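Pair request: fold both.
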Amino acid sequence: MASTDSMSNPGWNILFLAWLLTIASALTSIFFSAVMQLPPCVLCWYQRIFLFPLAFIFTTGLFFCDKSVVRYALPLAGAGWLVALYQNLLVYGIVPESIKPCSQGVSCTESYFDILGFLTIPMLSFMAFTIILVLLYTFNRRISQ
């Protein structure tokens, strides 16, 4: 558990939000595949590869109030954001389907889940990685002051 001094650190709350969003995103991803039986595509697996370690990195950063957590989390969040962006460009037809990585198995462009006409699983992932990146940027600015 973090000490009282670390709890009063304004950056700790931002890191906690990033941890909370990462945990919620990872549990949602597991829920979609294990409970709703929605098979993940290739790009979804890549995004999981970048998302799941963030839960451990943020947990360690919170526990020890480690200010260098940005150094370890930023490359993973950035790579996940790029994969999510690429998948969304595929889904919306901006990138041609001829260069999609999922030639066999589950399609990376098929929509299994849709809320309000635009909240698909790739869009949820893109939004989560974007918010995590914004929180990391804010945390980095806050601790450098």
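--- second member of the pair ---
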Amino acid sequence: MNKSLNLPQPIDDYFTADRGDSETVGKCFTDNAVVKDEGNTYNGLAAIKQWKIDSSAKYTYTCVPFACEEKDGITMVTSRVEGNFPGSPVDLRYFFTLEGTKIASLEVIL
């Protein structure tokens, strides 16, 4: 992870957890969080944990955030993602909405 990038703590926790398992990733989200990725929407912790299990089984990847900006309560993080998926490497944009110390929503866009 790019340690010179000053990410809000819940988002920093997410990118650290993303290298681990679905339980660790799930702890970053609120109970009713929503994740949108690859045209799919995952509602709630169980679906988000399954999203992490499925994506980890499908691809091996590394994710390095390199830019962060906040506007209107949404934090956009741009990350270089490299792995064994078509089109690698790519720069993905992660749009986070936070609720307290957790992530309430995340949308991942190319």
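Observation on the second member. The mean pLDDT is 94.
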